[in-house]
Amino acid sequence: MRKKALLAVAALAWSALCGAQAYPARTITFIVPAPPGGATDTIARALAEDMGKRLGQTIIVDNKPGAAGMLAVQALTRAAPDGYTLLITHSAPIMNTPYLYSHVSYDVRRDLAFVSEICIGQIVFAVNSKIPARNMQEFFDWAAQNKGKVSYGSYGTGSFPHLLGAYLNQSRGLDMTHIAYKGEAPMVQDMIGGNISWAIGSVSTLGPQIQGGRLRALAIVGKQRVKALPNVPTLSEAGLRDQELSPPGWVGLMARSGTPAPVLAQLEAQARASVNSAAMKERFQSLGLEPVGSTSAEFKRDFETLEPVMARLIKATGAKAD
């Protein structure tokens, strides 16, 4: 009997090993908390194409915008923990949402597995080109002269651009109105059309409109200038040195907690290989993105470092989404 039991255990172990080695055996889905056309969607599609080739399977992108990214995260937590449903997300639903909403159905540490930090989105403060401001001080002067008339957009309630706008609004008493969109693409269209005065968004999405003269960049929200907009100063260079202005604008690959370790390891390895390839690095940099391709441990460590920064920013603005 004991011999039969040992054989059964060995058979199960072999079956599990073979199952892990066989991954992936079918199509993989990347859920994205943004509509088509924005930076997160662009990153997801580039990664899906390259990682799909490396894994030998098709990877499809499933856009689930809305509810400050919670719809997408919820969809992942309701999927089987088998590595066939993954999440490509910006930082807001992971670091901001739990502090902004009273009722969030997921717990990041309990329900999600960190696979790899894909890239850091370089962020720019831009205005409609008809606004006379050509630097941050001129913008603040103009906004002060037009109190109650200035509106700004973000790609969702609770996103970093929303919180940064709220912080600048509150700290300088500018009485500006926030308009939340379900993604960057509709936000940019409204800014070009003059329906909102300014916005903070990714260089990858706003950059072409800035270079085309429809928008004007006033500052890079980050620690250093970006290659795509070399003449645009950072907020610090423009005189804004508040600690709350350091953005945690990453995009990362996440899985369900409970996903088998061999599957997570394979996803991490292939994501890192993809992001660190010369072709993908060039592609990301051309979009104003800084490639990262971290290990899962590095990704989790960055999350644990940056999460308190967002908590402080949310507390400073008093922002609540419900």
Your description of this structure?
This protein has 322 residues and is α/β, with parallel strands linked by helices. It has 2 domains: 26-120 and 248-317, D-Maltodextrin-Binding Protein, domain 2, CATH 3.40.190.150; 123-245, Periplasmic binding protein-like II (D-Maltodextrin-Binding Protein, domain 2, 3-Layer(aba) Sandwich). The protein is 45% helix and 19% strand. It contains 12 helices and 11 strands. It has a 6-stranded mixed beta sheet with strand order 2-1-3-10-4-11, with helices on both faces. Strands 7-6-8-5-9 form a 5-stranded mixed beta sheet, with helices on both faces. Strand 1, helix 2 and strand 2 (59-63) form a beta-alpha-beta unit. Helix 4 runs parallel beside helix 12 (296-317) and helix 7 (160-172) runs parallel beside helix 12 (296-317). The chain starts with a helix and ends in a 5-residue tail after the last helix. The model is unreliable at 1-20 (pLDDT under 50).
